[in-house]
Write a structure and sequence with these properties.
Blueprint (H helix, E strand, L loop, with lengths): L16 H14 L9 H4 L7 E3 L2 E13 L2 E12 L2 E10 H11 L5 H18 L5 E3 L2 H5 L5
Amino acid sequence: MRIRLRVPKDGEVKSEGSRGWFQRVCDSFMGSTATDSVPKILQCRTDKRWSARGDSKYYLEGRHCRKIDGDWQSEYVFSVLTRNELQKIRVVVPEAPVAQWEREHNQRMSEEQRLRLARETMEALVDLRRFPAAITVLPETIAATSKV
């Protein structure tokens, strides 16, 4: 198997796509300092998954369920790009208050409602320009969630 590489000419902008990716991988193994001087914000590429909130952008990386001290909790992990920095925020939704809400409303709280709680909490943090590693949704906030 042969791999053919196109060598860029002087002054040529780095190509995108698989060729650009391969070139950047080769540069990282060769110890190139060209990407070391690029700010972190330029290295993080945003796409259509990212949502805007003020001058910040964020997207949901995923959800994890964990059992901590005998209680289940859902953790929603968001990546937030703000002030030239990429930060991670974990929004914890405890299951005990969710179960109480479900008993009071005689229905199961949907994943959409849980995600909305997590997203509203994260957006409130972005509006306040506070970026903790983790925050827990208060039981009062869960109890005030409207029925869908």
